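Contributing new records

If you add data, match the layout below exactly. Sequence lines come first and carry their own label; structure lines follow with theirs. Keep one chain per record. Anything else will be rejected by the validation script.
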Amino acid sequence: MTDITGIFPGGFSPRKYAPMKPEVGRDSMLGYALSYARLGWRVLPVHGLLNGQCTCGDAACKSPGKHPRIKDWATLATTEPAVIEGWWRVMPQSNIGIATGPESGIWCLDIDVHKGGQDTLDRWEAEHGKLPDTVTAITGSGGTHYVFAWPEAGEVRSATNVLGPGVDTRGAGGQFVVEPSMHVSGTAYTWEGSSDPLEGHKALPAGEALERAVAAPRSAPAAPMTSAAAVLDPGKVAELRGVLTYIPADDRDIWIRVGMALHSTGAGAQAYGLWCEWSQLSPKYDPDDQRRVWDSMRRDGGGVTLSTLYGMAKGNGWVDPGQVAGVPVAYAQAPVVVPPAAGFEFISAAELVSDPQPPTWCVVDVLEASTLAVIYGDSDAYKSFIALDLGLHVAAGRAWHGKPVRQGAVFYIAGEGHRGIGRRVAAWCKWHQQPGQIPFYASRTSAELTSYTSAYAVSEAVAAMVEAAGEVPAMIIIDTLAANFGAADENSAKDMGAFLNFTQRLLRERFDATVLVVHHVGHGDKKRERGSYALRGNVDARLLVERTNDLESLVTCEKMKDAERFAPMRASLAVVPLGIVDSEGRPVTSLTVTTAVPELGAKAPALPPPPPSRKARGTNQTIALRELARLQREQEERLGGVGIARVAAKDLREALEAFDIGKARYYEVIRSLADGGMVTTQHPHIALTEAGWQLLEEDE
């Protein structure tokens, strides 16, 4: 959270806010993670420990400091430095996990001394001989991790008690925690001194006896290689094409696994063609590398099969038609792919007319809630200052220059100028006399929102912050599109389509938040956005910013998809002294928007905020209202009529868990009640409105 008073003690100090440069030496968690990636080991962030408890927030966590922080981790674990750096920037307290399997080239034998694992291993070694002198770690609980090279043939299963009590394996689809991660006991994981992989020690083959003991069972021996390739029927090809649309093609680890899965079919050129067709969705496609990697693959897929492919797609929303309730068997067996929105249905005109939905605003008349908008202008038009001004007003719950806002958490994905963001926020807070304790979060680095892996990491970082702070997200600002577009081409409809798809799915839809994209104008046409037309065609609102004076710009609504356009507004800025000096002893200042008023002579359309709606109140909403009323009454009794009774949002969230209303559903319920005017949120508290109390009284 951007707490200006805490960030700048004794006066505003931008040095305290400057983005931290990631430590990359062996003395930092990120440095270790990058070192493991250089070994070819696929890295993932694992929950760490804070004040002796797991960072997942569950006081009864059964695997504190050991379980992954990201969903679909088996697919997303990577050796890409940029992705790893992004994870540890937004989740710096994470422990380090290593995904085991053929992609990393290793598996792990885990000896739990508290469950008799060492005795089991001693008995096994007495019969079969000592283990090879391979990479070895001492776990935080005093156990041992033996890391072996992935077998040339066969597969290692992830299982417990494989040799006897206390001896487990981490094989395909598994992961284990590594140095310098911290165990819940307070002891760090460490490599045994003479077998540290970061000092050059190699993971050795486990030997025939151990590999046979831990091998995954096979239902039948692999078919021998023949010169004749198998043939996939047209229905299977259509199904695989649909499945592949749910898997991103940018990450090399994922790319290799998809190739291995298709190669395992034995369908030769047919399977290779499917792999190439899918691979060309990524700008990294290299036909020479494609052929070289394909020719190096084994027929058995190294344990990776089409089941692996389907699992990856399911993790991204693909639904197996055979598992969709209500689908007739005849159709379930057909080679079709059911989209994520499996509950597709139509609604009649009569129903639409009987219950028209009024617009719900993030900023009344300016930005609708849960929409995608773009604010664009020339490089010196102050568009970023205006976008930041909008976001800070929403975070603080302050009317934006007379226009009411929907208060909530705001996430600012800064693609550039990270050192100056602190000064801009400080100037805004100082001008508006606003304490810095508001739910506004700024990124320390840019994102690559044309890449699924990077966009997913951003989405997970937002989710983690929302969960930790108990906030309802209201707005996500991407500043600028170009700085968060990676190496993709703005003029490419395909690349812009990827940006829009990931932004809509992973940010707007997931958090039900307004997404505001800051963008540049074209070189020739100063009235339209730069790049592919796909952007302007797919956003819900377009705000053009044109500089009219030294500290003044005109904001014009060029598009408002489902409401009237607001009248042009003239935004004025001021220079704000921050009360600090630079390295040369000179006073430091920054700019902030001070006023935004309708252009002289322009008439703003009359669009009042939607009236409170008492419709669409289900069981969960009713429970939430009653629990909130109970908590408020209890607080009133404790105060004895002195002071204002306020309920912490986290207390309400905990109360609703007893009714099986989890965290994800909690945000949906509170959002619907806030939209209906039943509750009001003011960070970090929540309260019933008069309309909410009245509704409860009517129910009683």
